[in-house]
Design brief:
By secondary structure, the protein is mostly helical. The strands form 4 sheets. Strands 1-2 form a two-stranded antiparallel ribbon. Strands 3-4 form a two-stranded antiparallel ribbon. Helix 25 crosses helix 26. The protein binds lanosterol (LAN). The site of lanosterol has 20 residues, from helix 9, helix 13, helix 17 and helix 19.
Length: 727
């Protein structure tokens, strides 16, 4: 049948439950670039000892000492810091797992497979362990680690397991397959599942709704031109459309032929692919396609593609999307915006330039930046890390707690500052207008300088950390006034006409573009929106800046802040809450919004709005004094109680109440008592429920939040009410 075995596939199917030796894993941090290494020889192990942070990431016992029991907030802060400072990495930043989404490893492993990239045995072993550890009780996988099983999660992760050599007869695989079949099989998957399975050569391209690269040939003025879309959508669309246009599939192998039998309910040869273009299981269909998109798709499939599409347009569109892919790779040194376009760009480079191209080699290397190893195994992070973000917040939390002058924490803060200094982007990208990038000069991104994408709130939190620390006389001025002003210049470009701020760029297109949202599994993804979280970060950064530099662009800053605060007021819902888009959910956004209002002097005493926001929270305080909000809030837009209170969300709410100057100290005391009660003897807090979210439906982990936000809440409380006994 012409089927060949893939170059790297482990020869036997029966090696599923192997484990690597966890004491041999090391995380290397090179200026914020994180990669994991498995050491094979005793010699290597001796020369490169495992760090405390490595041990902690891997769930091995750390050597961090026991602390005296804490009764007061500041004792708890110091214990927390004693632990967390032990996890600081040599360049000065913190690292962490950034998992949650369950659709990332499939893109990576399929990319490895179709580009015939050898997978190290240790990687393969630990990816299998991770996915088995995260398999739901019903045998399937969901969109994210806490989500219910779906066709997307189950068909894709089942495929990964098979590509990594797990036998189809393994009882866990049988269970997954039965579940998938009960959902109607992989023909009921969303667009992205159908896309990846077609690249792999398991489904036929007819099942994939059109992804025409010709959209990139539209003049810039049209309301649907892709440069107007949210950056993540257009950077994913670009290589997807290139690959779709080429109809490229990996030639059949024995394994992919086997998958053709395993993933579907009907016999493979009987499947009418075209008829399943719009088939989708209700479990995956968070955001059904609109009739507008369905009509366009119909016209593309039945009229444009067969009868109109001139070869010259196809060629031109493929050439231009390839050029855009190359610019993205060059501008990020192959790190790319995120884990989805990084894998797709790899496949595109492989198609365009062949297996031995330098571009393909660089991509293979860079994809390592997304991998993470933990106790459960190896996973793929949602970005190439959370370095800048966590480091900026930690600095701020320590200063809020009044500990910046304390000699004990000075080395830690100095290193963290040096890290931020190293990570500020000082240039715009080459030809940045040509590839529609927003300026980056002066900005901080979310992860590191290699990725280097401006984010409104990452820049704001970064510059706040720098200004706060550098205004303390005993700290050096690593970042000059000019560079601080560069960051402010960027923040001043981020405001929308509404007054609010979006994430990576000001909003470029109309909300009506959601009518063309083809992804089915995500909501509100097509354009940028205003976010109370991002807007608050800009407000507080600009307000802090104008205190230190009252002369610089004063009028613009004043107008920006006034309009931004007005947006925050308007974004409040009638019940007093704000909907959060990047953390779960009302607890997260409420904290930020109250910080914005406090920044312009609106507090409990003088503002009905703030009182309403506080009441929203106090009405939801749980028995034990904490708050706990389920991720369901994000999906339903209704505050949904978690069965258990959560340390991180409780800290968020306490920070919000403190910003609001909420008068009833007992409410906060009870909450902090719960937080301190959950702290371990070594100052650690245990991992609880998932903290973050994106695109309404997908959750994502922020493991360092359980240190950063309790430290900040406890510290702020002690500053206001004194270091009083809580327990
Ligand atoms: C992130 C992570 C950080 C987050 C904050 C800084 C917290 C936020 O305030 C602004 C938006 C931003 C930068 C953000 C945007 C979307 C990201 C990059 C993510 C949630 C991490 C993963 C997600 C990305 C889209 C995942 C890949 C999936 C696709 C659908 C392309």
């Amino acid at each position: 049948d012409g089927a060949k075995d893939s170059a790297f596939r482990p020869a036997t199917g029966k090696q599923t439950d192997k484990h690597t030796d966890k004491t041999r894993w090391r995380m290397l941090d090179e200026r914020g670039r994180h990669t994991w290494h498995y050491l094979h020889s005793e010699k290597e192990v001796k020369e490169w000892p495992q760090s405390t942070a490595d041990k902690w990431y891997l769930g091995l016992p750390t050597d961090l000492p026991q602390q005296p029991p804490s009764k007061t907030p500041m004792q708890a802060v110091k214990n927390g810091l004693a632990f967390f400072s032990g996890l600081q990495l040599p360049p000065g930043n913190w690292g962490c797992e950034y998992g949650g989404p369950m659709f990332l490893l499939p893109g990576l492993v399929i990319t490895w497979y179709v580009t015939e990239t050898p997978i190290p045995e240790a990687h393969s072993t630990e990816i299998k362990n991770y996915l088995f550890a995260r398999q739901n009780k019903d045998g399937g996988w969901g969109l994210h680690i806490e989500g219910d099983s779906s066709v997307f999660g189950t068909s894709m992760n089942y495929t990964v397991m098979r590509l990594l050599g797990v036998s189809a007869q393994d009882p866990r695989m049988t269970k997954a397959r039965e579940l998938l079949h009960s959902f109607g099989g992989a023909v009921n998957g969303p667009h992205w599942a159908k896309f990846w399975l077609s690249v792999l050569g398991v489904t036929q391209w007819e099942v994939v709704n059109p992804i025409p690269p010709e959209l990139w040939l539209l003049p810039d003025w049209t309301p649907i031109s892709p440069w107007r879309w949210w950056i993540h959508m257009r950077q994913v669309f670009t290589p997807m459309s290139f690959i779709w246009s080429k109809r490229w599939s990996y030639p059949p192998t024995r394994l992919t032929m086997a998958l053709r039998n395993e993933l579907f309910v009907e016999p493979y040869d009987h499947i009418d692919w075209e008829s399943h273009r719009n088939s989708i299981s209700p479990r995956d269909n968070f955001h059904p396609k609109t009739w507008v998109l369905n009509t366009i798709n119909w016209a593309l499939v039945n009229v444009y593609n067969p009868y109109i599409r001139p070869n010259s347009w196809k060629a031109k569109a493929e050439a231009w999307t390839w050029k855009l892919i190359q610019m993205e790779d060059a501008n990020t040194d192959y790190a790319d915006l995120g884990p989805v376009n990084a894998t797709l760009n790899t496949v595109a480079a492989y198609i365009q330039e062949g297996p031995n191209a330098e571009s393909v080699r660089r991509h293979r290397e860079r994809l390592e930046d997304f991998l993470w190893v933990k106790d459960e195994g190896m996973l793929m992070n949602g970005t190439n890390g959370v370095q800048n973000w966590d480091t900026s917040f930690l600095i701020q939390a320590v200063i809020e707690a009044g500990l910046a002058q304390d000699e004990r924490w000075r080395p830690m803060l100095l290193k963290a500052l040096a890290y931020l200094e190293d990570q500020q982007t000082l240039e715009n990208c080459v030809d940045y207008t040509k590839c529609y990038r927003h300026p980056t000069k002066g900005a901080w991104g979310f992860s590191n300088r290699f990725q280097g994408y401006t984010v409104s709130d990452c820049t704001s939190e970064g510059i706040k950390a720098v200004m706060m620390l550098q205004s303390i006389p005993s700290y050096p001025k690593l970042i000059s006034d000019d560079r601080i002003k560069m960051a402010i210049d960027i923040i001043l470009t981020m405001q929308n006409s509404s007054g609010g701020c979006a994430s990576y760029e000001p909003t470029r297109g109309s909300e009506y573009l959601e009518w063309l949202n083809a992804a089915e599994v995500f909501g509100r993804i097509m354009v940028e929106y205003d976010y109370p979280e991002c807007t608050t970060a800009c407000i507080t950064a600009l307000s802090m800046f104008r205190k230190h530099y009252p002369e610089y662009r004063a009028k613009e800053i004043e107008v920006f802040v006034d309009r931004a605060v007005e947006y925050i007021r308007k974004a409040q819902l009638p019940d007093g809450s704000w909907y959060g888009s990047w953390g779960i959910c009302f607890s997260y956004a409420g904290m930020f919004a109250l910080e914005s209002l406090a920044c312009v002097g609106e507090t409990y005493e003088n503002s009905e709005r703030v009182r309403r926001a506080c009441k929203f929270f106090t009405d939801r305080q749980m028995e034990d004094g904490g708050w706990g909000e389920s991720y369901k809030s994000c999906e339903t837009h209704v505050y949904t109680q978690h069965e258990k209170s959560q340390v991180v969300q409780t800290a968020w709410v306490v920070i919000g109440l403190l910003e609001a100057e909420y008068p009833d100290v007992d409410v906060m005391k009870r909450a902090l008592r719960m937080i301190v009660g959950r702290q371990g003897g070594d100052g650690e807090w245990e991992q609880e429920a998932i903290e973050g979210v994106f695109n309404k439906s997908c959750m994502i982990s922020y493991p360092n939040y359980k240190f950063i936000f309790p430290i900040k809440a406890l510290g702020m409380f002690a500053k206001r009410y004194g270091d009083i006994e809580l327990l």
